[in-house]
Amino acid sequence: MNKTHKWYWLLIAIFSAFSVAHAQSGASSVPATYQLKPTPKTVTWGYYAADVPPVLRVHSGDTVEIQTLITSSPKRLEEAGVPPDQVEQSLRDIFDQVKDRGPGGHILTGPVYVEGAAPGDVLEVRIQAIRLAIPYAYNAFGPGRGFLPDDFPYGKMKIIPLDAQRMLAHFADGIEIPLHPFFGSLGDAPPPSAGHISSAPPWMHAGNLDNKWLVAGTTLYIPVNAPGALFWAGDGHAGQGDGEVDITAMETSLIGTFQLIDRKDMHLLWPRAETPDYYITMGIEEDLNKATEMAVREMIDFLVHEKNLSRDDAYMLASVAADLHISELVDGNKVVSMMLPKAIFVSSNSK
């Protein structure tokens, strides 16, 4: 065999070995896409917990299309005027078959286990798309609930038709509301020591943030508190005002597409978010002043560590350029969001 043939066969052997190794590296080398629909076996009703068995396992970088259900009983929807054939069969099945409920009221689809995610990491949730699953939403209040419980000591529910083509909600004659669908609840497992916690108050695991800026195109960063992260989605909203003052938004069923990424290079104590135009920090506390303090401190921390500002400059920049929003007031822990426009960070090459 001459030298040319020797080199030829050596290259073939190297290429073959590389191909085998690449094949053995598994599906994680090429991100996969999954679908997760709500059934009695794929939902958790009313709580987040680290001991819930996962209903789907994925690798970091994979994408999951998750369908969620409206937070209401079929009977209540029908009594409010929804035709029986427009009540999702999956909602009927879950109300009939799922007995492990509460203490919260949200039906959460999941959890999704992200291979390799470990406590101390950050789960990066890229919200790629959100679409309506049904042609209606509802808004409701009840006695003893909402921000003005003494003013409205009774209950009422309103069915709101949704126009998916025009992306408008018909609230009443002469009133149409632009649709901005988002998931009121996106979260992972709390620390195992916390046990089963209600789906109502948001916390370090994110959960029921009711942050209307978490629309398609936004990325949510959640601290990982348990192996696999365990990600849930639920509480679909067709739109909402900051504060969610009567305790509900335009509640509906949604289908969301999420890319889940395990970030071992990030370490957070509280959730953060990023839209194409804004950086968002959040304060989550029962006392509104303390929630606001947390949102501001989180923004200062972001600017110091991510933008290399001094603490003094970060505090001043937050005061002159960032806006505070009351995301929600009505679920125990309040959520205050501080939003800083990305446009203020001018490239050194800009003129």
Describe this structure in words.
- 19% of the residues lie in helices and 34% in strands.
- The protein has 351 residues and is an alpha+beta fold.
- Helix 4 packs across helix 5.
- It folds into two domains: 29-266, Acetamidase/Formamidase-like domains (Jelly Rolls, Sandwich); 277-351, Acetamidase/Formamidase-like domains (Endonuclease I-creI, Roll).
- The protein has helices at residues 3-24, 74-79, 89-97, 288-306, 311-321; strands at residues 33-36, 43-45, 47-48, 56-59, 63-67, 107-115, 122-132, 136-141, 156-163, 168-172, 175-178, 182-187, 197-198, 206-207, 219-223, 231-237, 254-263, 272-274, 278-285, 323-328, 334-341.
- The longest helix has 22 residues, at 3-24.
- It contains five helices and 21 strands.
- The strands form four sheets. The chain has a nine-stranded mixed β-sheet. Strands 2, 4, 6, 12, 14 and 16 form a six-stranded mixed β-sheet that branches.
- The N and C termini lie far apart (64 Å).
Mean pLDDT level: 93
Q: Residue share in helices?
A: 10-25%
Total number of beta strands: 21
CATH architecture designation of the largest domain = Sandwich
* Cα-to-Cα separation, first versus last residue: 64 Å
Give the strand order, joined by hyphens, for the main sheet.
Answer: 1-5-17-7-15-18-19-21-20
Count of DSSP helices? Answer: 5
In the CATH scheme, the class of the largest domain would be: Mainly Beta
SSE pattern, N- to C-terminal = HEEEEEHHEEEEEEEEEEEEEEHHEE
Shape estimate:
globular
Poorly predicted parts: 7-28
**Rg estimate, integer Å:** 23 Å
The main sheet comes to:
9 strands, mixed
Could you tell me the strand content as a percent range?
Answer: 25-35%
